[in-house]
Specification:
This protein folds into 2 domains: about 90 residues, 2-Layer Sandwich (Alpha-Beta Plaits); about 200 residues, Formyl transferase, N-terminal domain (Rossmann fold), CATH 3.40.50. The chain is α/β, with parallel strands linked by helices. It starts with about 25 loop residues before the first strand and ends with a strand. The chain is about 30% helix and about 30% strand. It has a 7-stranded mixed sheet, with helices on both faces. Helix 6 links the parallel strand 8 and strand 9. Helix 3 packs parallel to helix 8 and helix 7 packs across helix 8. It binds ligand LMY7XDAE. The site of ligand LMY7XDAE has 17 residues, from strand 9. Its EC number is 3.5.1.10.
C-alpha cells in the first residue's frame, strides 16, 4: 500500500514557490466519495489529505440523514515540496479508507477532461451552446465526436474540427444504428453521451448499457409535459413559465434522475413558436450545467434522485 511521505520539518529557508495569484503551487486533484452515513467521515477524508500535505481548495458535503447516506467532494492541491504519487497512487492510498467506510470513491487529476460524445437531430441550439462552451473550456469536457440522424449539423461540427457521424435511423434500422453508436463510444473512449435534442428513443438495452453515462435535455420542466412536443402541450395548458430539464437517460422516457432544471417566464401572448424560442435558452442553461457538474464529479446518483455538490 502506498504510504504518505514522513512529515518533514520545514527547510530552514524554504525555496520561494511561484504561487500564481496566491494559489498553492502543486498538482491538483478531485476526490469524491459516497458511503453509508456515520460520524467522523469528513475527518477520515481531511485526515488523509493532511497526511499527504494537501491544501483544500473546495470541500462540499451532504449528510442525507433521511436515507443514511454521506456524500463528499473535495478539490485539493498537493504541496510541491512533498511527494506526488499521482492520481493512481492516491487512489491506492485511499482505497483502504474507502473500504473501511464501505464507500464508492474516485480520485482524478483536476485537469482531466471527460471525453464526451454529443447526439443531435434537427435543432442545433443546444449542440451549438455546448461546442462553444467546450471550446472555452467551461465544461470540464472534451467533445470527441458528434453523432446525428440528420446531416444538418455537419458543417457546424466540422468547423470546430470535431468528427461528425451521420447515422440515419428508422424503426427497422434502429438496432444497427445503436450498434454503430456503441462502436463510436468504444472507438473514441467516450465517458459521457449527451443527447442535445436528439429525438430518437434509446432502446431499453442501450439505456441500460449507458446508464449513468447518458444525459438528455427534455424541453419542459419535468414532470410536466413528458414525451413529444412539450411546448405545444404547454401552450394548450396556458402556462406562464416554460422550462427545461437535464436528466440521465433511462428506459422510461423522460423519467431518468434529474440533474439540472431552468425556467423562463412567458405570458398569454406567446404562441407555440414563441414558447419554443423562449425555451431555447433554458435548454442550453440546464444542459450545460448538467454536463459541467457531471464532468466535474459533482453529481451523485442516489436511487432515483441526484445529489449535486456544486
Ligand atoms: N430511453 C430514452 N431515450 C430517450 C430519452 C429518454 O428519456 N429515454 N429522451 C429522449 C428525448 N426526448 C425528450 O426529451 C424525446 C425524444 C423523442 C420522443 C418521441 O416520441 N419521438 C418519436 C418516436 C421516435 C422513436 O420511436 O425513437 C415520436 O415523436 O413519436 C419523445 C421524447 C431521447 N431518447
Amino acid at each position: 500500500m502506498t504510504q504518505p511521505p514522513p512529515a518533514q520539518s520545514a527547510p530552514a529557508q524554504p525555496e520561494p514557490t511561484p504561487a500564481a495569484a496566491g494559489l498553492p503551487d502543486g498538482s491538483a486533484y478531485v476526490l469524491h466519495i459516497d458511503c453509508p452515513e456515520r460520524p467522523g467521515l469528513a475527518h477520515l477524508v481531511t485526515g488523509f489529505l493532511q497526511d499527504w500535505h494537501a491544501d483544500i481548495l473546495e470541500l462540499k458535503q451532504f449528510d442525507d440523514f433521511r436515507a443514511g447516506r454521506f456524500f463528499l467532494r473535495v478539490h485539493f492541491v498537493l504541496d510541491r515540496q512533498h511527494e506526488d504519487p499521482g492520481a493512481e497512487g492516491l487512489r491506492a492510498a485511499f482505497a483502504p479508507l474507502a473500504e473501511q467506510c464501505d464507500g464508492t470513491f474516485d480520485i482524478r487529476a483536476a485537469s482531466a477532461r471527460r471525453r464526451v460524445l454529443i447526439m443531435v437531430s434537427k435543432f442545433p441550439h443546444a449542440l451549438n451552446d455546448l461546442l462553444f462552451r467546450a471550446r472555452n473550456d467551461e465544461l470540464g469536457a472534451e467533445i470527441v465526436a458528434v453523432v446525428s440522424n440528420h446531416p444538418d449539423a455537419q458543417q457546424l461540427v466540422e468547423w470546430h474540427k470535431i468528427p461528425f457521424f451521420h447515422v440515419p435511423i428508422t424503426r427497422d434500422t434502429k438496432p444497427a444504428a445503436e450498434a454503430r453508436l456503441l462502436e463510436l463510444v468504444e472507438q473514441f473512449d467516450v465517458e459521457l453521451v449527451v443527447l442535445a435534442r436528439y429525438m430518437q428513443i434509446f432502446s431499453d438495452e442501450l439505456s441500460r448499457t449507458l446508464s449513468g453515462r447518458a444525459i438528455n435535455i427534455h424541453h419542459s420542466f419535468l414532470p410536466s409535459f413528458k414525451g413529444a412536443k412539450p411546448y405545444h402541450q404547454a401552450y394548450d395548458r396556458g402556462v406562464k413559465t416554460v422550462g427545461a430539464t437535464a436528466h440521465y437517460v433511462s428506459s422510461d422516457l423522460d423519467e431518468g434522475p434529474i440533474i439540472a432544471q431552468s425556467v423562463q417566464e412567458v405570458d398569454h401572448s406567446f404562441g407555440p413558436e414563441e414558447l419554443v424560442a423562449a425555451g431555447r435558452d433554458t435548454e442550453c442553461k440546464a444542459l450545460s450545467n448538467a454536463v459541467r457538474w457531471h464532468c466535474e464529479d459533482r453529481v451523485f446518483l442516489h436511487g432515483h434522485r441526484t445529489v449535486i455538490l456544486r
